[in-house]
Amino acid sequence: MIIPFLWMISTSVKSFAESMQVPPVWFPVKLHIENYANVMDKVNFGRYYLNTFLMTTGRTAGQLVLCSLAAYAFACMRFPGKSVIFVIMLSVLMIPSQVIMIPSFVIMRNLNWLDSFYVLIIPGIFSAFGTFLLRQFFMGLPRELEEAAKIDGCSYFGIYSRVYLPLSTSALVSLAIFTILNSWNDLQWPLIMTSQDEMRVLSIGISTFQGQHATDYPLLMAAAVMATIPIILIFIFFQRYFIEGIAMSGIKG
Predict the structure, then answer these.
(1) φ, ψ (nearest 5 deg) of residue 183
(2) What is the pTM of this model?
(3) How much is the pLDDT for 251?
(4) CATH number of the domain that 157 lies in?
(5) Which residue windows are transmembrane per the record (predicted)?
(6) Furthest-apart CA pair in the chain: how many Å?
(7) How far apart are CA 97 and CA 91, in angstroms?
(8) Quick one: CA dihedral 155, 159, 165, 171, positive or negative?
(9) CA 238 to chain centre
(10) Span 190-211, mean pLDDT?
């Protein structure tokens, strides 16, 4: 698992000739740290970083709020057609994203959302997977807590905000990590929905170093290293909550 990351870091400080050398070499003769500066010069990498951060933050915050509300309703509330609605929502997971890409583009164009943060953030603030993940976690919590809160006069929203959310830190962190990973690495949606360079994200910026006839591997790997570091740090600091949330939500291998 670690070897590809080490190779990525090694290649990011090589010269172009060393990156193409056969047999490959692990350690360059001279460290070309300037590759990282060249990445910033060749493309608007800072702007791509900001766009990706804003898109990821907006999607993650939206999913934590909306998916948790929907999950609480499906797990604890009674209303007509709950099971049917839940099954219909889960059926969305079986539809490939490529199938709905053209209708989605037409909708975004009619809303005049193309090349804006609206198109990057709003369609990703809810997911059937996030709702299912949190629903499974909520259903595993003791129902006595909900009954005790009702006896004390707590409303449904009060039970959700004061009882369920404080006990669901691990599940919420798990959903946040999943959403951050998917949003940070998203390529297809931003590529189709944006055309202006000011609205591009990291995944598109990194792909510009790969040409049809030649690829500048040192710059490509340097860009990949800078794009990967935040995700690695997030997982390192929150892996305990991530593993706990997966183990307690019913999604097991």
Answers:
(1) -75, -40
(2) 0.83
(3) 46
(4) 1.10.3720.10
(5) 48-72, 84-105, 117-138, 159-181, 217-238
(6) 73
(7) 13
(8) negative
(9) 15
(10) 86
